Structure formats: structure tokens, C-alpha cells
Amino acid sequence: MRFTKMQGLGNDYVYVNCFEEKLPDPQKLAIEISDRHFGVGSDGLILIMPSDQADVRMRMFNADGSEAQMCGNGIRCVAKYAYEHKLLKARPLSHPVCDRLLRSALPGTQNSYQITVQTGNGILTLALATVADRVEQVCVDMGRPILAPDQIPVKLTGQQAVGVPLSIEGRNLLMTCVSMGNPHAVFYCDDVEAIDLKLLGPAIENHSMFPQRINVHFVQVISGRQVIMRTWERGSGITLACGTGAASVCVAGVLASKTSTEILAHLPGGDLQLLWDRQDDHVYMVGPAVEVFSGLWK
Predict the structure, then answer these.
(1) 242 a catalytic residue
(2) With CB atoms counted within 10 Å of each terminal CB, which end of the chain scores lower, N or C?
(3) Against a cut of 0.85, is the pTM above it?
(4) DSSP of 106-169
(5) What's the pLDDT tens digit per position in 254-286?
(6) Domains in the chain, ordered, with CATH?
């Protein structure tokens, strides 16, 4: 089986082109190939597949074999792979919000295109900024955030879960919960480096309040337009970046009156630009995608 290793801000996955390869047991493969000592090493496995609803389809499996609905960093790499390996015919960009964000992220952008990707969170539109026919930056229309607790899901009542107390491992925390197709819990703190993420991450992920487990993010506010965040990713552990998590942090910051609708998020693997556009209620994310190497898995 041929595979390609790709990463978005260090959030790395093994990608398989299912236009050419057949995988009978992707859950088992995800566990084996993600192992950083005996496998290729990654945060999980992503399949790039044909779709009768979009240009391509994406299926994502965490390092523990569990399937997730979406991955913001992963989908940018799907777009890069599909474009550069000619799995689709991209169309000229006609999305004004993504056009503005891409020109801000990559000044001098002249060639921009758009594609659609079918995910577990529906069909998403992505805009690609290219240089010498290589994708350098990708803007993802992440869709509308889900704020109703029963749809995130989190075992709470009310219309939103904002500033909710959570006592765990001897700590009294306040959390804001958001779903971007997968569930996220956001916690604000004075210093993200002082957080024992290896202790708190799995304890929160597996708390009984979250029926589908949850992704955990600790956030330090620098200003109304900048934050630092660290992530414990459901099914994968500590990761260098989480795109849907950064989108959730953007939304949570507005709900909790911490940050504005447009922020720059500093993650251990690099920076992501986020916008919660209140006109269409969609969250937009801009960041890079990098192809690392290809190989043969036997």
C-alpha cells in the first residue's frame, strides 16, 4: 500500500489515496501505522476517497483507531494532496471571505482556487492559494459552530455551555464547549505552559460529562486578537496543533468575552488565522499544509 505522510503545523497524518488503494480494515491500520516506534508514526490515518457529493471525500481515524468526524489541519492536507496529485479539477476562487484571508496570509497571492470535501461534518468548501502550482496556504470554511449542549454533546442543560464549572484532579476549572463537527472543551488560564496537560487532558477527555469523549484545549489570552493554546486531542493525546480546536477557541473567546471574532492562534506547531464571521455564522481557518514524504507499507 502506498502512503504519503503530511502535516499541518506538526499535526501529522498518514494519507492514503483510495482512488488507487483498497483498505479492508482502516481502524486496525490506523493503530499500526500511527505507532511512532513500530509504524510510520502519526496522529492518525486519513483516507482520500472518491465522492458523489463533493470533489473528494475524507475519512479520518485517530491513532487509537477511533473514527472522527473532522480535522481542520488534516483537511488542508487533503486539499493540497488532491490538487497537486490531480485527483480533481479545481475552480477559480469565488469566495470573498477566503480571498481576503488568503491575501492576508500570503501577500501577493495571484492564483487561488476552490474545492469541496465531503467529511463527517458535511461538505466543506476550501480555498487554495498556490505558488508555482503548489498549494502554500489553505482557507477552510469550517461551517457553523454547534453550541447546544445536547448536540456537542455534553451533559448540560440550557442553550450554550459557557463558563461552566468543572472540578477534576483537584482543580476547579471553567469550561466553554463548542462543536465544529467534533466536540471541544476550552479552558482559559494565565499560563498554558504551567498546565499539566498529560494529567488533565485524559481526565477531561474521558469525563462522564462527555458521552463521546472530548478534545481539550487550554488557552492563554495575549490580547483580544491573539491567543496561545495547547491541545489534548481525543484519541491521540497531546498534539502540536488542532484545526477544529482552534476554530472552537475562536468561537469560545467570543462567547466568553475573551477575544474578538478574528484571532491569530499560536499553537506549538505554528500559527492559524481564524475568523468567526457573524454574517453567515461560519468559522474560517487559514493555515499551511506540507507533504513530508511518501512510502510503501507492507
Answers:
(1) yes
(2) C
(3) yes
(4) STT--EEEEEEEEETTEEEEEEEEEETTEEEEEEEE--PPB--GGGTT-S--SS-EEEEEEEET
(5) 999 999 999 999 999 999 999 999 999 999 999
(6) 2-143+287-296 (3.10.310.10), 149-284 (3.10.310.10)
Residue-wise DSSP of 194-213 = GS-HHHHHHHHHT-TT-TT-
Give the active site residue among 77, 98, 139, 242: 242
Q: Which is the catalytic residue, given 18, 71, 98, 250? A: 71
| Confidence label for 75 from pLDDT (cuts 50, 70 and 90) | very high
| DSSP per position, 111-128 | EEEEEEEEETTEEEEEEE
Q: What distance in Å separates the CA atoms of residue 34 and residue 168, rounded to the nearest whole number? A: 30
Q: Any catalytic annotation for residue 71?
A: yes
pLDDT recorded at residue 298: 87
User: What end-to-end distance do the CA atoms of the chain give, in Å?
Assistant: 6
What is the distance of C-alpha 90 from the center of its chain?
Answer: 22
Task: Judge whether 295 and 3 are in contact, CB under 8 Å.
Answer: yes
Q: Which three cell numbers stand for residue 162?
A: 459557557
